[in-house]
Structures are given as C-alpha cells and as structure tokens.
Amino acid sequence: MNNHKMPAWLSGALIVGAAGLLWLLESRRPLRRETEPRLGRNARNVAVAGLAAATLQLVERPLIQPLTALVEKRRWGLLKCVPLPLWLEVTLAVVLMDYTLYLWHVLMHRLPFLWRFHIVHHVDLDLDASTALRFHAGELSIATGWRVAQVVFIGVSPLSLSVGQTFLLLSVLFHHSNIRLPIEVERLLNRVLVTPRMHGIHHSIVEDETNANWSSGLTLWDWLHGTLRLNIPQDWITIGVPAYRAPEEVGLGEILKLPFVEQRPTWVLPGDGQPVGVALPAADNQLAP
Ligand SMILES: [Zn+2]
After folding, report:
1. How far, in Å, is the centroid of ligand 1 from the Cα of 119?
2. Ligand 1 center to residue 122 CA distance, Å?
3. For 16-20, 37-41, 230-234, 270-274, which range has the lowest pLDDT when averaged over its residues?
4. Most buried by CB count within 10 Å: which residue of 157, 176, 266, 274?
C-alpha cells in the first residue's frame, strides 16, 4: 500500500512562491485596467478565501483524505483496475480530475442552485490572482460531494490528490492573474494550458462570453467540447456580471450573504432590463481569430 503524498512544504512553497511572483508581475505588467483599488479588493478576496479554507478543513479534509487512503487500499476506481506505473497513474488521475472539474464548472453555471454560490466568484469587478481564491465556503462545501465521486470513480490515491490539488491551485492562480504576457508567448502556452486572456473571457459581463472557456487546467476540454473562445480582445472585456456593477453591492458582507438572498437576473443590467451587447472582434490582441 502506498500512502505517500507530495510533501506539504513543497506544495506550500510552490503555491506561495507562485502567488508572490504573480502579485509582483501584476504590479509591473497589468493586463486589464482595475475598477476597484487593488489592496482593498485583495484583502476582501483573501478574507473570503480564508473562510472557505477553514470550512474545507472541517468539511472536506476529514472525508477526502481517508477516502483516498481507502481507494489505495481497496483498489477502487478506474485507474486501480489495471496495474500502471506510478508516474502514469498520477498523470492520468490529474488529467481525469481536471476533466471532471470542467464538467462540474459547467454545472455550477447551468444549475440555478449552484450558480447562486458560484456567482460570488464572478461578481468580482476585477480579475487577478486573488480572485482565484475567492470562492464562497458554501460552493466549496457542496463541491465536496463531487470530489468524493471523483476520488472513488477515478481511483485517486493520496499522492494523485496532492499532486492534482497543487497543479490546480497553481493553474487557477496563473489564469486568473492580471499579468500581461507577450501575446505570442500566451498563444503558445494557450495551446496546452488555460491562460489569463482566455480565462478573462469567461469572466466577461457578456453572457455568451462567460458561457465559454470552462476549463481549469488543460485547454483541451474546451476544445473537445467546442466551448473554446479566444477571439475577444482583452481590452473589450468588462469583468463581472451585469446585475451587480456597483462596488458597494459587492463588499465583503454583501458577497457572503449573496447565495442566501434574492438575486437579480444575472445577465441584464439593473434598471433597463437589457442584456449587455456582444463585443465586436478586433484584429489584434486576441489569442486567435
Ligand atoms: Zn465560472
């Protein structure tokens, strides 16, 4: 039986190092103009994240960690049906977790009950590495059910889980970040991984644009499902959702309460009841035509 995990110091160092580097690059080479002052926003997002992390320690950790040990011991799940070299098993587990997270993300948007929670992530008026951590504790608690299914059906060992979660955190920090990579570099990276300009389109206030680019790690899933959208130049995008555009409506208290109060129709501007128009594609500064 193999109950090894990635050492906590290693994943911790990678994540803290990446977050610090991205924060620095966001100051030096921002991709999008900011709507709200950065420090206050970052503090708010870190507070939401702190609450979510504490909830995960209580809800998810006591369930998922022992479950991965059980998967390893009893050889449950797809990847445990056949003997595989360790490196291949871990790689396949990470890839399959990434794919099933794509499906979960689609459900978060499509099912009204789940959207009530996921909207907290999307009402951020700006997008940067701190948004990557801003998930409502309720969303992550509900997602525990999905995670249980992932572990059992895929056959996720303790090692695969620790590698997968580290990969996911690094990936979400990166593609939510507000860093302006040279467009040629980003085009190349984007063939494999979700990148900041690609994910920026998913955070647009235009419904059609949000209903694209659901992948969290590999671009492949959006490509396979025909939901990849790269032809929106970043300068054309307004981040957020039409229903909540005023900074005072998306303060810390407001967003924590949001899943539990009556919500406005997401995709129309309050007052005029009109959806937001689709941006016309422009020639340059887009990832692909
Ligand atoms: Zn989303």
Report:
1. 8
2. 7
3. 270-274
4. 157
Centre of ligand 1 from the C-alpha of residue 197, in Å:
15
Residue type, 204: S
Query: Is residue 76 left, alpha or beta, with left meaning phi > 0 and alpha meaning psi from -120 to 50?
Result: beta
Q: What's the gap in Å between 135 CA and the centre of ligand 1?
A: 10
What single DSSP character describes residue 264? -
Neighbour-count burial of 8, counting CB atoms closer than 10 A to its CB (0-12 exposed, 13-18 middle, 19+ buried): exposed
- Centre of ligand 1 from the C-alpha of residue 85, in Å: 34
Q: Among residues of the chain, what percentage have pLDDT more than 90?
A: 90
- Give pLDDT tens digits for 37-92: 999 999 999 999 999 999 999 999 999 999 999 999 999 999 999 999 999 999 99
Written as one letter, the residue type at 86 is: L
Q: What is the phi/psi pair of residue 16, to 5°?
A: -65, -40
Instruction: Give the Å distance between the CA of 15 and the centre of ligand 1.
Output: 22
| 74 C-alpha to ligand 1 centroid (Å) | 35
276 or 134, higher pLDDT: 134
The dihedral built from the CA positions of residue 23, 27, 31 and 33, taken in this order, carries a sign that is: positive
What's the pLDDT tens digit per position in 87-127?
999 999 999 999 999 999 999 999 999 999 999 999 999 99
Distances, alpha carbon 224 to alpha carbons 21, 136, 149, 195, in Å = 32, 29, 23, 17
Q: Give the HSE-up count for residue 169: Cα atoms under 13 Å, Cβ half-sphere.
A: 18
Q: Which amino acid is at 233?
A: P
123 token code pair: 């009402």
pTM (two decimals): 0.92
| Residue of 189, 157, 170, 185 lying closest to 89 (CA atoms) | 157
